[in-house]
Amino acid sequence: MKKLNIAIIGLGNIGSYLYKYLNQNKKIISKKNNCIPNITYISAKNKNRKRNFKINKKLWLNNYLDATKNKNVDLIVELIGGAEGPAKKLVFEALKNKKHVVTANKALIAKYGDQLSKIAEKNKVNLEFEASVCGGVPIIRSLKEGLIANKMNKVFGIFNGTSNYILSSMDKENKSFNEVLKNAQKLGYAESNPTSDLSGDDVASKLKILSSLCFNSFLNKNIHVEGIKDIDKDDINYAKRLGYKIKLLGYAELIGKNIYQRVHPTLIRSSSYVGSIDGVLNAVIIDGNPVGQSVIQGEGAGPAATTSALISDISSILRGNIKFPFSISNKERKNLDFKDISERFFSAYFRFNVTDKPGVLSNITQIFSRNKVSIKRLVQDPNKNKSSSSIIIITHPSKDKSLNKIIKTINKRSYVKKRSKLIRIDDE
Amino acid sequence: MKKLNIAIIGLGNIGSYLYKYLNQNKKIISKKNNCIPNITYISAKNKNRKRNFKINKKLWLNNYLDATKNKNVDLIVELIGGAEGPAKKLVFEALKNKKHVVTANKALIAKYGDQLSKIAEKNKVNLEFEASVCGGVPIIRSLKEGLIANKMNKVFGIFNGTSNYILSSMDKENKSFNEVLKNAQKLGYAESNPTSDLSGDDVASKLKILSSLCFNSFLNKNIHVEGIKDIDKDDINYAKRLGYKIKLLGYAELIGKNIYQRVHPTLIRSSSYVGSIDGVLNAVIIDGNPVGQSVIQGEGAGPAATTSALISDISSILRGNIKFPFSISNKERKNLDFKDISERFFSAYFRFNVTDKPGVLSNITQIFSRNKVSIKRLVQDPNKNKSSSSIIIITHPSKDKSLNKIIKTINKRSYVKKRSKLIRIDDE
Fold first, then answer.
1. Min CA distance, B30 vs chain A (Å)?
2. CA 20 to 30 Å from A265, out of A38, A187, B355, B379?
3. What is the CA radius of gyration of chain B?
């Protein structure tokens, strides 16, 4: 049987899991692909870090970059992480030297995917990144193969398990953001530095990759990104009263001739499919022609789910299934004009915390009307033991820039006691 | 650019949709696969049937079998249907003559898939059948590629849109089976002869295909199949009161060292994911190692969703992605011993319609106890204006053969007014 020589670079949780899994399941993977995955080298920053397996010294490379020039390497699995530095150097060098690359690095692909894909295509090697977007959800292979027939209109969903865990725990346990975050860190559901998960940047990288696959476009930087760190318990509770949950959602969508990419907390009906996805799960919903709506759901992260994705990419290369990294030749990918969301219409949820005095409500509603935003629902709640109240407003669909203008205007008023909130609603 | 010559045989709703779709999207499909899908021939039983496109006479084959020997045909798409007759002849002949085959024919694959797969492997051509199982759900490609790393423990779900539509409409509209069926036929959700949908046979074919893929086994005929035609409004309503929905589910599962295949109406928690899938949707849940649980959901049938699946198979062949039809070489596929479910444990729902007289309840509970089935919950409801009552019993997990023994024994009693019911519960 043919064999393919593999170097695994990066041996953290994921690299270690993959290394062990490939060794333990070599026979069945060989049989399924008619080609043997043969690990010839491994390398990582720190040779002596404590790992749950013994490193075979014959496989160890002192300089990880040597893998890119070694004739006993056909495929490099990059598990270093980060858009810059060693990961970037490794992947560029590997492709230039006609090595196949498999990576779980969403930041790298979202930033340099176009350049990398051009080198891969020129050198007729694979660049595969299933593991970079929602590990346990085979979404990239489904877009590139299982759903290849389709003209996509929309892809959206929950792409970050950490923030979904935090929001759903706040909802279920009625706890504050910080309490839940601490607990998530204790349980290993949030990293000690969870910035990119909470800021929406992690979702943004994944969404950029998905939208370029859906629309046959180059990666596009025009994306609206908001994270979840301003969501508080009151927002969660008001949303619940109104029949919604708050989820951090990513959307790439074609509306008329406009494409939008956006990541932000969203009110979505509790009874909807996405509303029911709680905890660390990921869910991707695709809307295409002719398939209609398809949903893929699974564990988004963690060494096990990520290894499932890495092996699917490695298997594809074992079978010699050479494809364009972004589903279509770079010559054919388009430079689409992604639009700013300011002109897009949204229904929205507003929350104002205001001094309880006459004229406030009338001033607020006046500002809405001046911005041509019409109100669908209004709830005024006196705050307990305070001379202030909360005003919740749900609007009819209105231009995003008008919604933002309202927030800006009202925040300047002296009757505002806390920064006002604006959360978009998914009302489709 | 290379091209691949295609013959489409069978031009009903699906064949016609595919023919038009391939023509209209030839350019983008060629670009994605670096190879042109070139339709050289078409054929169908009736040339003069009314179709929504004009048949190009140059493409028409009077004898569909000629496609299997024509040197201008590389790939035959079989859309005739049925496990025997012309479809069987066509696919066998095609593979023998080294033509690739793409088919949507679940009955054929479930019955002759092993033989066909051997010929395909020997002749190094593809035999692909994504469209045979849940069209809009790319489950076969996900099992063969996206989730290739995994050792599967279980695959289950809703594989038949017609019966799911009927059961969920009975639930929502509180209508009888026959009322809903008539309506489904009017709306095109059920065929004029819906036997194979309602008997569970359609699900059984799909399940056999999925379980052989999951467990790397040959197709296995040992499968327990029950359909939905005995489910009535009262069952639906009692299930609802107890927090369940009734769904027609298919399961292939590895428990300990035993593999079971089963298709039957099942009580499943209304609040569960599968419980929430209503209407004509299909949902497939996979439980594997290392991926954990993944879910794929989408439209199960209809020309559009089926075409999405057919094009994904055709694309795979356009890219020269030659694979084993059942994921692994026939030499490596196992002859696993699938077990009868009689020894498997299930919780169950029983419904008895009995004369309202002293001693009945005590006799029933005695029969349960004699069969070592312990009762978890019992509800007795007097029927309106009648000297009879309904007794609903939910059991703890018990051997399937004991559950069946109870039904058989009690049905013989003179106090039974209507045939008793036994529906298994999914309580995992």
1. 9
2. A187
3. 24
Per-residue confidence (pLDDT) for residue B235, from 0 to 100: 96
Chain B within 8 Å of A23 (Cβ-Cβ)?
no
Asked if A147 and B328 come within 8 Å (Cβ–Cβ), the reply is: no
The confidence band for A135, taking pLDDT boundaries of 50, 70 and 90, is: confident
Give the count of alpha carbons within 13 A of A329, CB side only.
14
How many other C-beta atoms lie within 10 A of the C-beta of residue B92? Answer: 17
For residues B398 and B369, the answer to whether their CB atoms sit within 8 Å is no
- pTM of the shown model: 0.89
**Is B206 part of the annotated catalytic residue set?**
yes
Residue A365's Cβ-count burial label (10 Å; 0-12, 13-18, 19+) is: middle
Collect all residues of chain B within an 8 Å Cβ-Cβ radius of residue A28: 216
Spell out the residues 6+ positions from residue A284 whose beta carbon is closer than 8 angstroms to its own.
A134, A137, A139, A155, A156, A157, A159, A210, A295, A296, A297
The side-by-side arrangement of strands in the sheet containing A75-78 is: A35-43, A2-9, A75-78, A100-103, A127-128
Residue A31 is encoded by which pair of tokens? 């049989």
| Helices and strands (DSSP H and E) totals, chain A | 13, 16
Nearest to A148 among B17, B32, B216 (CB): B32
| CB-CB under 8 Å, B145 with A141 | yes
**Among the CATH numbers 1.20.1530.20, 3.40.50.300, 3.40.50.720, 3.40.1160.10, which is that of A2-135+307-318?**
3.40.50.720
The pLDDT score that the predictor gives to residue B249 is: 98
Do A17 and B290 make contact, defined as CB atoms within 8 angstroms? yes
Q: In Å, how far are A130, B164, B262, B336, B348 from B253, measured between CA atoms?
A: 27, 21, 9, 13, 18
Distances (CA, A) of B123 to A142, A318, B92, B324: 28, 21, 12, 11
Domain ranges of chain B: 3-132, 139-299, 344-426
**In one letter, which amino acid is A214?**
C
Catalytic residue among B111, B154, B206, B247: B206
Give me the CATH code for the B344-426 domain, please: 3.30.70.260
State whether ipTM is beyond 0.85: no
Residues of chain B with pLDDT under 70: 385
> Is the fold of A2-135+307-318 the same as that of A343-426?
no
Radius of gyration for chain A, computed over Cα atoms and rounded to the nearest angstrom: 24
Instruction: Report the pLDDT averaged over residues A1-28.
Output: 95
